[in-house]
Structures are given as C-alpha cells and as structure tokens.
Amino acid sequence: MKLISFIALPLALGLSCAVNPAVRSLSSSVSETPTTQSVQAKKLMTGADQVAAYLPYLKGKRIGMVVNQTSIIGSKPSVDSLVSLGVNIVSIFGPEHGFRGNASNGAKVDDAVDAKTGIPVVSLYGKNKKPSKEQLANIDLMIFDIQDVGCRFYTYINTLNHVMEACAENNKELMILDRPNPNGFIVDGPILEAHLYSGIGMHPIPITHGCTIAEFAQMINGEGWGGVAKTNPCKLKIIKLANYTHDTPYTLPVLPSPNLNTQQSILLYPSLCWFEGTIISQGRGTYMPFTVLGAPALKGKYDFSFKPVSIKGMSETPLHQDEDCYGLDLRTYDTNLLRKTKQLNLKWLMELYKAYPDKARFFDTSYSKQMGNFNYRSGNEALKKQIIAGVSEKEIRQSWEPGLSAYKQIRKKYLMYP
C-alpha cells in the first residue's frame, strides 16, 4: 500500500469523540457508534494509517514520537513516512526493546541517534522511564504510536503512563494513534494489589485489560493513575481506529517484541506469562517462545521436549539453558477457545504444578535470576496459595470478584469501540 493513498482519505476518517474532558477531537462531528456486525464488514484501519486525519495538525510543529518497530504507516516506519511528508520530528523516544525492537527482554537500552534519519533517540527503558523537562523543552506535540498486546505485565502501558505524566507536568499535548488490541476480547484475571506494584504492573487492573492503547490512556487520565492527577490530566488528542470492535480478530503486521514472534504467541502470552514466576520455561531461548511450556524435571511425564539456548536479541541467558525441557506443545492449540470462553487458561498452570515432582521448587524464585516473583505476575498473594492447596478453577475465579466486575464497570466509561 502506497503512502499517497492515505493522503486522499477523507479528513473525517478516524476522528475521535471526547469520552474524557482531557481528550480533544480533530472534528466537531460525533457519529453514532456502529454495530459490531456493520463494523466487521468494513476494512479495519489503524490511527496511524489515516494520515489525512492528522497530518495538517502536525505541520509547523516540533514533534516528539514515542515509537518502536510496530509504528508503521502502511508497511513503512511512521517516522520515515512523516519525515518524507515534511513533518519536523525533533526527538524519538524508544520503549523496552528499543526504537528498532531488537533489544532482549529486560535489557537496558541506551540513548542513540537514528542512523537513517539523524534524529536523536531517547531511551525510556534505560536510565529514565519518562521524558524529562529538558527532553520535552523543544517539543510542541508528542505522538504515541506503539502496538500493545493488552496485558498488564507488557510494559508498553507503563511507558504510556510515564509519557502522559511528563506531558501533563510540562503542559505538552499527546496525540495517540490508536491500534487494535489483539487480546481485546478478554477481560480477565485478578486485580493487581497495590503492594505488588512493580515494573511489570503499575495499575489496579486484571491481567488482560481489554482496552486499546487510547482507551487505556483515557482510563489513566480519568482514574488518576501513575502520577497523572485528575486535577491536571494529560491533554490527549486521539486518532481513532476505523471499523474496529473489541471482538475483531487482528493479526499484527509487525512483531511487537522479540519473544512474541508469532500470532499464536501473542494470543497465548496472557495465559503463559505468569509461568515466568515459576520453574517452568515458556520457551525463551527457542524460536517458539510463549507457545511451549516445560522443565527438565518433567521428563517421563511428557513426551514433547525442547532445549533453550542463548539467542542474541531474544533470550541470551534463558531459564534451563542447554537442558532438555519436557512439557506442553501449544503451537497448534486452538486459540478460538480463548475467544469463545473470553477467559485466561488456568488449566495449564494447575496441570504443571500437579505434575511437577518437587512442589517446593515450583515457585522458588531463588532457582534462577530469570524467574520473577510469581505474586508480581499474578498480581495477588492468593493465586499461588490456591494452586498449592489444589483449589478448584471455579473457586479461584470466584476469588477474583468483586474486583474484576468492578474493573469492568470502570472500563466501560472509557471505551470508544463496541
């Protein structure tokens, strides 16, 4: 798809309606919310692809962009596209995995200069998590355009929050080019307890939050989360998705991070990532991460096996490195079952704990530096105890209430799509 085709789009495409007082629209018109059936009959378009809706607003402004390799217009990096259209981009801000998306999980990313455009790149996953006053001084408008996967412990929503906080503090407007949530059909999991806030969870939300990145930004503003005060919200300008619903299947055109390298891994990630707080490998150190589960001690209990190795740019010191791991092969698991139930899969966690021979080591975070505390992954103190005690799945899900239902009511206030 050529870039010029987007310039011809009607200006009305993708314009936002103000759900929150801090959100400004590029149009005074507000259309009715279309039905799910009518939306799905039309072509989905990202906010970034609707260039005609926002290009005039960028002209004459000094622009900062929070982007990574998923930030594309058509098939071309959005930074390159906008520079070619005469937009004055003065700074690029990169999240975890870096601007080009080639840094390993959790690896510190340094500031740099983009070799292609010569634009300075400021890391938001190194010495500072949010832009400083000095870094924002020569910027008139910030743009956030990053593909999220709709999961609490995926760090891009934290980056969004830090950017919003900085913009609010320094009176800078933030434009969000909205993108679909591939896991937007699931709102599930325990609500994160405040004493477990960390770099992999800083909001009182379930594991899968069910919002697009723009909807989540409105929730940050409206609820006053993460240093963004209700009395001084971030000024947002949102370019909405066209023809999108939360149930719309969406295959990501660009991999969001090195270890989410297939659509299968993206859809399984919310149900598998809490294994990072256990002795079970999720396939880091293979080319099929987040589609397999296993450990050396499960030999004889499962026939399927894989061997994690050091892979530069993906997992350089993976759990159980150079050891044969035995367990579950989920590469052909029918993810439509997740869409049907609209729930995380708890059965795998329950099954592998039951199968593991040394129960005392299953949640032992001292075993490996790569393993995070399970409670920080689950977001509460109860789930680990429930798994150990053999509590039923039904009882575990009941324990997530009333918090989960309360969150769903909060979420409704900020939804822009059916």
UniProtKB/TrEMBL annotation:
Domain named Peptidoglycan beta-N-acetylmuramidase NamZ N-terminal: residues: 63-263
Domain Peptidoglycan beta-N-acetylmuramidase NamZ C-terminal: 267-417
Highest taxon of source: Bacteria
This protein's UniProt keywords: Signal
Residues in the signal sequence: 1-21
GO molecular function per UniProt: peptidoglycan beta-N-acetylmuramidase activity
PANTHER family, per the entry: HYPOTHETICAL 460 KDA PROTEIN IN FEUA-SIGW INTERGENIC REGION [PRECURSOR], PEPTIDOGLYCAN BETA-N-ACETYLMURAMIDASE NAMZ
Protein name: DUF1343 domain-containing protein
